[in-house]
Write a structure and sequence with these properties.
- The chain is an alpha/beta fold and about 425 residues long.
- The longest helix is centred in the first third of the chain and has 97 residues.
- It is elongated and about 150 Å long.
- The protein starts with a helix and ends with a helix.
- The C terminus is likely disordered.
- Pfam families: EAL.
Length: about 425
Amino acid sequence: MRKITGGFLFFGYLFLALTIGAAIWRAGLGAGPGAAGALGALGVLAGLHAVVTGIADRRALRKEIAKVREAHRLLADAMESTQGALTELAQAIESGALSKTEALTGEVRMLEGLIQQMSESIDERLATSSITADTYEGRRQVQSNTLLKTVHDALTENRIDLYLQPVVTLPQRRTVFYESFTRLRDPSNRVMMPAEYLSVAEGEGLLPAIDNLLLFRCAQIVRRLARQDRKVGVFCNISLASLGDETFFPQFLDFLSQNRDLKEALIFELGQATFDARGAVEARNMAKLADLGFRFSIDKVQTLDLDFADLQRSDVRFIKIAADLLIEQLLDLDGAAPLANQPDIQAADFAPLTRRYGLELIAEKVESEKQVVDILELDVGMGQGHLFGEPRAIKEAVLAETDPPADFVRSTLKSAEKRVRF
């Protein structure tokens, strides 16, 4: 562009010089003076051009120098702020590592105390047992003690697996929650289903320890998901025994009060029968968890005729109802009212009714696409079941991150196990 402009200027100056020369020649001064005038004019114009160009170049150079200086100043400021940010980041990483170590130490200490108490309880029960296997009751007690030993060893030897099952939005089927399940393994690594061990675990006061280990792992899984920027919550089952245990619950509450960042991601779940059987102590302890910001879920619902106001007062935010039960009591009624205490409520009104009480309805045990069509007709927003994903064990590498230090737990039980004779 500058070459084109320069060419135009040259021809412009040449035209002016020739015009001046022609004017002198036409004035009768002759061709020589005309040519001299043209050359003189051309020289004057060239000199003026050089002066103007020089001034412009100097101004441009000064502007470039000013820009370079400003850029240098900005670069220096940026380097200074970056250095400050790096220093703050290093301090944050250091303090975060320390706080995480302190939190983990606190969690392990709580596990240590609970399992120590569990071992002492088992020791006392079995040390005072004088049964024989000659009678039916004796054989039954021996079997119970054998199962108790298996459960006890699974806890102390960390043969506990965490299973997760997705809870999805409908109709998008996007995973928004997981439900967590605990599975114990016997010495042969056979997976024990809850029906096998829950009765003896409850009878021997082991449920708080199982609940605590589940909570420990759920907390670590939630933190791992958060590191992956996945805002997914986890339903964590809790027993009535844990809510009412005067030794376990204060430690449980202390752990959660120090980890309030989990309040949006951890939802404590109880069965409807468990929820209905809660006493004053359990209700009060649920309120303490709610004061920290934690929410509750009710599953294993047997009837849709629920006290929604009581659920709302108890900080229950989710209700899980089996898909078959929803369809049976809402769609297969032949015009009858689904709720005996609210005859004006129609099938399509049930899900909106729960939402008016701050309760989100989840259809669980969804096994077929036909059920999905039916529950969508009922305006149910979330689903859970084998159709969307079966409970799957966490991979060993991930599970290892959620384990409490095994050596710490084993050393706690070493002396107790020597005294126990199963």
